[in-house]
Amino acid sequence: MTSTSRISLGDFELLAVSDGIYRLDGGGFFGVVPKVLWQKKACPDEKNRVPTGLNSVVVRSGEQIILIETGIGNKLSDKMRQIYDQPAQLLENLNAVGIAPEEIDVVINSHLHFDHCGWNTVRKGDRVVATFPNARYFAPLGEWEYSRNPSVRDAISFISANYDPLVESGQMTLLKGGEEIVPGISVRTVPGHTAHMQAIILKSGGRTACYISDLIPTSMHVDYAWGMSFDLYPLEVIESKKRYYQESVREKWLTLFTHDPEIPWGYIEPDERGKMRVVR
Ligand SMILES: [Zn+2]
User: Fold this and answer.
1) Dihedral of CA 45/213/267/58: which sign?
2) For the chain, what is the domain count?
C-alpha cells in the first residue's frame, strides 16, 4: 500500500498511512503453506522475500487524532536493514495528509515487535525521544513484561529503544486488555501470534472496525490454515481467528490489515463453501 486510503466509520474518519514496504521471507510469512500455493498470491524476490506492508491507521475522532501502530521507524541496525529493508516513510506520509507529529494525541501499539512500534521514538544526538511529543502512548503490559526476557525464538524482534524510554518517562501506559482508551476505541487481547497482543477495536455510529494486527496480517491470511511461521502459538491463532470471525462476520466488522502491501482493509466473510474471503 503506497498511497493513502480513507474511509468513514460513524463519526470517525480512518486514514491508512504506510511506513512503506519491507521484505519478509516468504516461508516465514506463510508458515506451513507450500510455496506452490502462496506464490500465486505474493511474488518473491531473488532472496525469496515477499513485499510486506507497514500499515498504520490514523483515526480522526473529531476531538483527537489517534495513531494505531508506528511501523519499523528508522533505528534498525545495518544488519537488520540488509535483511528486512527500512523504508522509513511514515512521517512523510503523515505529512502528505497534513498531519504533523505534534498533532498526534494518542499512539496505540498492538504489540512490541519492531515492525509495529518503530516510529514510537527517534534518536536525537545520544538520546532517544518520543517522535510524537504530545501523545499519550499505549501498549500491552504483558508484551512489555515479555520483552524484558524474550525467548530466543523472537528475541530479534524486540528493540527496547522503541518503548523503554517512554515507559520510564511515564509517557507510555501499559494495558491489561479490555480498556477503553478514548470513547469508542478499546483494546482486546487476541492470543496466538504472541501471548499478549491486543487488537484495537473502533466503534462509532453503530459500526465497528478492528485492527486485528498479526492475527490476520493480510488479506491473504484469512484462511484458518494460513498463519505465519513467526506465530509463537499457531494453534491459538486458529482459535482466536474462529472467535474473531464469529463476531466480525455476524456484525459486519471492517477488518484493518497491518501487513497487506495493497489492501488496507476489507470485510471478511465466508463464500458459499464456507471459505473465508475478503470483500472490499
Ligand atoms: Zn509481530
Assistant:
1) negative
2) 1
Strands 185-189 and 180-182: antiparallel
| CA–CA separation, 280 and 277 (whole Å) | 10
Q: What pairing do the DSSP bridges indicate for beta strands 198-204 and 207-211?
A: antiparallel
Nine-digit cell string for 212:
486485528
**Residue range 125-160, pLDDT digits in tens:** 999 999 999 999 999 999 999 999 999 999 999 999
Task: Give the separation between CA 136 and CA 216, rounded to whole angstroms.
Answer: 26
Q: For residue 204, how many C-alpha atoms fall within 13 Å in the half-sphere facing its CB?
A: 19
**Spatial separation of the C-alpha atoms in residues 156 and 10, rounded to whole Å:** 39
Separation between Cα atoms, residue 137 and residue 166, nearest integer Å: 8
Instruction: Write out pLDDT tens, residues 210-261.
Output: 999 999 999 999 999 999 999 999 999 999 999 999 999 999 999 999 999 9
What H or E segment, with its residue span, contains residue 117? helix 114-117
Domain containing 78 equals 5-279
Ligand 1 midpoint to CA 116 (Å): 7
DSSP annotation string for 72-106? STT---HHHHHHH-----HHHHHHHTT--GGG--E
What CATH number is attached to the domain comprising 262?
3.60.15.10
Q: 65 alpha carbon to ligand 1 midpoint, in Å? A: 24
Residues 76, 30: contact at Cβ < 8 Å?
Answer: no
In the reported structure, the alpha carbon of residue 205 is separated from the centroid of ligand 1 by a whole-number distance in angstroms of 31
Query: If you measure from the C-alpha of residue 118 to the centroid of ligand 1, how many angstroms do you get, rounded to a whole number?
Result: 12
What is the reported pLDDT for 52? 97
- In the chain the beta strands, taken as DSSP E runs, fall at 5-9, 12-25, 49-60, 65-68, 106-108, 121-124, 127-130, 136-140, 172-175, 180-182, 185-189, 198-204, 207-211, 254-256, 265-270, 276-279
